[in-house]
Amino acid sequence: MNNTSSILCLFFLFGAVEDFLIHDLYELAAFAEQQPTSEKLKQGITQVLSIIDTQHQPWLNGMELLDDALHNKHVLSTGCEGFAYLLPQMLQRSTWVMLYTWTQATLSHPQRIAQFVGHIAGRAFDEAGKRIFQRIMNSIVCHSVFDIFTMFNVLHWLVINFPSQLQKGGQVRLLIVDSISSLITLILGNSGSQGRALMISAGYMLKKLAHEHNVAVLVTNHTVGGERGIPKPTLGQTWKSIPHVRLLLSGDHGHNVRSISVLRHPFMLKNAPVKGLLQGCKVFDLGGTAWLFQFILATLHEKVGRLNDVEN
Amino acid sequence: MEVGRLPISASQRGKLISAGYTTLTSLSSLSPSDLARDLKIRESEALEILKVASHDCRLDQPEKSNGIFTGAQTAWEMLHEEQSFPRITTSCADLDNILGGGINCKEVTEIGGVPGIGKTQLGIQLAVNVQIPVDFGGLGGKAVYIDTEGSFMVERALQIAEASVVDMSHYNELLRKELRTCQVEIQPTDILKNIFYFRICSYTEQIALINHLDKFILEHKDVKIVIIDSVTFHFRQDFEDLALRTRLLGGMALKLMNLANKYNLAVVIFNQVTTKHKEGSFQLSLALGDSWSHCCTNRVILYWNGDERNAHIDKSPSLKSASAPFSVTRKGIRNSASNHKRIKLM
User: Fold this and answer.
1) What GO terms are given for molecular function (chain A) (predicted)?
2) Residues A178 and A292: beta-carbon distance below 8 Å
3) Of A150, A180, A219, B272, which sits most exposed with the smallest number of CB within 10 A?
4) Host domain of residue B20
């Protein structure tokens, strides 16, 4: 008896794998007994279950997880020595940093980025400096997105094209969505769960991307007035659990001093001093955007240093 | 579930899933009539679903060409593009200075201030200035003026246009002394003809117009500025559901940003002020709340400093926070007179 025909029998009964999975297995077996083609059906059930079994993510033990954390996850610097703690393995395995920014509120400002690059390179733009500058600017890719479905498309494209990017050596290391809240607040209505479902699937996609491809994901969020007028991040309780790390930026109006506090971090207590901030395979949620470009470019710091060595 | 990320309505998605269509490939070789029968919907609706599905399906093929998502740009390309854009002058040199040369195209700029500070004047001035021909360092574009408060005065626009033409001929004479001439062919009446004026009487009309703008600008490609005076007016009246208001305004801001980006034009939004209770005292701040304040790229606040009008850059991703005085004269927005005196004294 061939496998396909037994699976086909099942297919006629259930239609989709999802429909099959929601049934109780014992009930299924009992049901199969009563059917005229019980042999075929039972075989089909075992077959499908074994296929499903191979589809789930592999089990990892603690050592393998540690190994993954040490070799595949990287900490990206924020460029601010006050709280950045550069780990030695930073960027060591990445071949070339490529950034995707989606800008909403701050439609990206290449001139501002140019200033940061100049600052990081720490020298006037001579010939070699210009080349580095151009390469850095070329590794920042920006896509304007004005609704959540376009963002899904871009994310999906990114996942599909990961293998080909690896071959070319230009792998995405940092993904910035600026800002996620302007896309999501629009679809969160008072009634209906559709908006909520889209928000969760956006969060899920970002987490998956971060985990499977070792990309640091940074999303920016807005703030609204909370209790006693103290600003709090938007998007509510559901979103709260999606990012691994939540940082809140605040600044006195009219003063140039900005501060950052940790609302949530897997290794840290609330309001503890911040150490390494942006780690590959984590999803981040930031309140506020002004600090963003400093951050993007600072992640390239090491890269520039290395390029300088190459050029000289 | 792949159909989960299709831009279709919740009921359509529910019907698709319950009919067993969960993947994009399951939709790829289907005829609209088959889908309409399975989902018990109209054929036109089924066709729409298939259209979005096939668009998404095309994304699934890895692109070999450049490794960049269609429509994406690198920062290098953007830098070069940005340098080639002229800015729209405000006719006040001090104000232009702090704005980095004027109002930037491809950006949404919000300008707010107390009544009588000169918001509408600045709006009219910008609608005129966007038409300064390329030979004179302008954009030679047209303007869309969306008036929600009924404060646009055509006589005033004519006055400002006339002053602008006079300024251009002065400039021309200066040039003639140097070496060459470029004729001022533009007439004040031409300037008025190139301002497309929309009078809006309710927030429904406002939303409808913003949705229509895309089509309008597609037909009038030389529109280089969209002025909304003011975005606030109708949204402050009889609006009880504040969460809905936030969503509507957020959606509007995204549409305006999309317009600015797509057609390389400047969007200028005027806002009113409100009092806000903060740390025990009442302070003036721009209306529409905290969520709205995230929506615009740049934010300029106009305020009185004694007898003098001032503009302050409150928020900008690329500009330093700074203030500059300006004045409203018969000719339009100009440098503050007292400022000139001060410079002369120095």
Assistant:
1) ATP binding; ATP-dependent DNA damage sensor activity; four-way junction DNA binding; single-stranded DNA binding
2) yes
3) A150
4) 2-59
Using the beta-carbon criterion (under 8 Å), do A160 and B59 form an inter-chain contact?
Answer: yes
Which residue is associated with the tokens 């004027």? Answer: B102
Classified as helix, coil or strand, A166 is: helix
Q: Which residues make Cβ contacts (< 8 Å) with residue B250, sequence separation at least 6? A: A182, A185, A186, B291, B292, B295
Q: Does a structural domain hold residue B75? A: no
Q: Among residues A151, A141, A137, A146, which one has the least CA distance to residue A174?
A: A141
The residue out of A14, A34, A55 marking a domain boundary is A55
Same domain, yes or no, for A263 and A147? yes
Would B73 be classed as within a structural domain? no
Q: What is the pLDDT along chain B (346 residues), one digit of tens a residue?
A: 677 778 888 788 888 888 878 777 778 778 888 888 888 888 888 888 888 887 776 666 655 445 556 667 777 888 777 777 788 999 999 999 999 889 988 889 999 999 899 999 999 999 999 999 888 888 889 999 999 999 999 999 999 999 999 888 888 777 766 655 566 678 889 999 999 999 999 889 999 999 999 999 999 989 999 999 988 888 887 777 888 888 888 889 889 988 998 898 999 999 998 887 766 667 778 888 777 887 788 899 999 988 899 999 988 877 888 899 999 999 999 988 765 444 444 4
Please count the helices (runs of H) and the strands (runs of E) in chain B. 14, 12
Same domain for B105 and B155, yes or no, is yes
Closest-CA residue of A relative to B248 is A186
Q: How many domains in chain A?
A: 2
Which of B60, B243, B297 faces A160 most closely, judged by CB atoms?
B60
**Does residue A90 share a domain with residue A33?**
no
**Do A142 and B78 lie within an 8 Å CB cutoff?**
yes
Q: How many domains in chain B?
A: 2
Interchain CB distance below 8 Å, B73 and A141: yes
Question: Are residue A167 and residue A250 in the same domain, yes or no?
Answer: yes
Give the CATH number for residue B277.
3.40.50.300
CA B281 to CA A158: how far, in whole Å? 50
Of B112, B120, B119, B83, the closest CA to residue B100 belongs to: B83
Domain presence at residue B276: yes
Q: How far apart are CA B321 and CA A113, in angstroms?
A: 18
Nearest Cβ partner of B251 from A112, A186, A192? Answer: A186
Give the strand pairing for B223-229 and A223-225. Answer: unpaired
Q: Please, what is the Cα angle at A14 between A13 and A17, to 5 degrees?
A: 145
Q: Which residues of A touch B82 (CB under 8 A)?
A: 109-111
Contact (CB<8Å) A168/B260: no
Is there a single domain that holds both residue B119 and residue B159?
yes
Q: From start to end of chain B, where are the E strands? A: 73-74, 108-113, 142-147, 195-199, 223-229, 266-271, 273-278, 281-286, 298-305, 308-315, 323-329, 332-335
Query: Nearest CA to A135 among B73, B76, B71, B78?
Result: B76
Among residues 183-222 of chain A, which lie with CB inside 8 Å of chain B?
185-186, 188-190, 192, 194, 197-198, 201, 222
Report DSSP state, residue B103: B
Q: CA A234 to CA A62: how far, in whole Å? A: 35
- Pair A174, A216 in one domain: yes
Same domain, yes or no: A141 and A239: yes
Q: The domain containing residue A307 runs over which residues? A: 62-311
B285 touches chain A (CB under 8 A): no
CB atoms within 10 A of CB B44: 9
**Angle at the Cα of B124 from the Cα atoms of B118 and B126, rounded to 5 degrees:** 100
Distance CA A309, CA B211 (A): 53
ipTM of this complex prediction, to 2 decimal places:
0.75
| Statement to judge: residues B287 and B319 lie in one domain | yes
